[in-house]
Design a protein that fits this description.
Elements: H1 18-31, H2 35-53, H3 61-72, H4 79-86
Helix pairs in contact: 1-2
C-alpha cells in the first residue's frame, strides 16, 4: 500500500515591480540570505507583529486597578541611562577626542 504524505511547503507567487525586487535582493544580499529566505522571514515577522498587536489581555478588575495605579506613578530615573544620555555623541566630538 502506498503511503501518501502531506506536503509541508506551499509555494507563494507574487508579481512585483522590478524596483521592489532589486531592493529586496540588495537587502537579502546584505544579510547573506536568499531572496526566498529573506521574504519568508520578513513576511512571518510582519504577520507575528500584526497578531501580537491584536492580542487580547484579560485581567480582573483589581488587577486592572493595580496596573493603572502603577502607570500613574512618577517615573524613576535610571542613573546609568541618565549618564549615557548626558554624554555627547561621538560625531559631535572633535576627531582627536574620538580615539
Amino acid at each position: 500500500m502506498t503511503k501518501i504524505s502531506q506536503r509541508k511547503e506551499h509555494p507563494i507567487s507574487m508579481r512585483l515591480p522590478e524596483a521592489d525586487i532589486a531592493l529586496i535582493d540588495r537587502a537579502a544580499n546584505a544579510r547573506g540570505r536568499s531572496r526566498t529566505d529573506f521574504v519568508r522571514e520578513a513576511a512571518v515577522r510582519a504577520a507575528e507583529d500584526v497578531l501580537m498587536e491584536q492580542r487580547l489581555i484579560r485581567m480582573s478588575a483589581d488587577g486592572f486597578a493595580h496596573f493603572i495605579d502603577h502607570l500613574a506613578q512618577p517615573a524613576e530615573a535610571v542613573p546609568e541611562l541618565v549618564d549615557v544620555l548626558k554624554r555627547s555623541a561621538p560625531w559631535d566630538q572633535p576627531s582627536d577626542e574620538r580615539h
